[in-house]
Description:
The chain has helices at 4-14, 16-41, 44-58, 78-90, 100-109, 115-125. It is mostly helical. The longest helix is centred in the N-terminal third of the chain and has 26 residues, at 16-41. The mean pLDDT is 85.
Amino acid sequence: xxxxxxxxxxxxxxxxxxxxxxxxxxxxxxxxxxxxxxxxxxxxxxxxxxxxxxxxxxxxxxxxxxxxxxxxxxxxxxxxxxxxxxxxxxxxxxxxxxxxxxxxxxxxxxxxxxxxxxxxxxxxxxxx
Length: 128
């Protein structure tokens, strides 16, 4: 009887770089698909009005501002922006006593009344 486990192990060891690359490609496609699906829930037109407050620190073009220590939003994955806004809103971010910039952002995120508003503003940011 052939040693099937040994043959499989030999195959994996011989092709581990290719297997790793395929795995990473599958993971990347999953995250891109997830990000795209979340984008479909947001209304960029509704988010445009909400972004007016954000533009004071992040700029009208979403490129960020060094003077306010505000990062670039343009080009970020929507899933990332949604998650970070939810973290600020819930207090996961911006609650440490030494995080003055985070505390400011926590207050700004609190002005977004619900998750739909978060998705809307992020949908608008993705148009910048």
